[in-house]
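Running this now, will post back.
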Amino acid sequence: MIWFKRRYLVMLVALIAFIWYSMHLTDFQFQKFYQFINTLYFINERFFPLNWDILPKMIEESLVTLAMAFLGTFFALLIALPISFMAAYNTSRHPIFYSTTRSSLSVLRSIPEIVFGLVFVVAVGLGPFPAVIAIMLHNIGVLGKLISELIESSDHGPQEAMKAVGATRWVAVLFSILPQIWPNVLSHYFYRFEVAIRTSLILGFIGAGGIGQQLFNYFNTMQYKSVGIAILMISILVILVDFIGGKVRQRVI
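Update: finished.
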């Protein structure tokens, strides 16, 4: 059988060894899962009943968080879309452009939003604006890479057909590749939008405002009933974005 080939057995042994070593490094113990029952007791005793009095304020802060995530990912998509054509080997004009653009996207992607946020909070001050810039820069790297891979895997047939009837190179690229990849581009965009909402919460911890900053304040002051409302609002935001994203993709496809 194919599974009993020597190389697969070697890979299996290597995988088991790596799992064991990782569990040793992280002090991973299955018996500690029994302690999760304490977490359930803690949530049940401290988080309920929820503090509904802060709901109007949390709705306002949720809109700030939503705006941060939307602007950051939307501007990132606008910038990443043309860059991704230079980062794809089949549409880039020269290997140097391809390598330089790919490397630049990797650099942007390798720097977490929290690091960008810390830098921009110092540079431009507290508030949602540095969070928008941080989300935008990181997502240019992520969306640029994902879209460039979509371009590389697209069908070259329509592009060659347009060139055969006299279309210029970029017209052929734009009108033959973009319609093919557009539904997947939207799928990636809405996924990154969801991620940006969660990222906005982390950025709120460093003074970027929104529901994340309120969540941080409530945790610090042990107002767990208010923390429960914040978590509820975050869940609603993510579900809402997922629902809208699904509807938009259905219309496009």
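DSSP finds ten helices and no strands in the chain. More later if anyone needs it.
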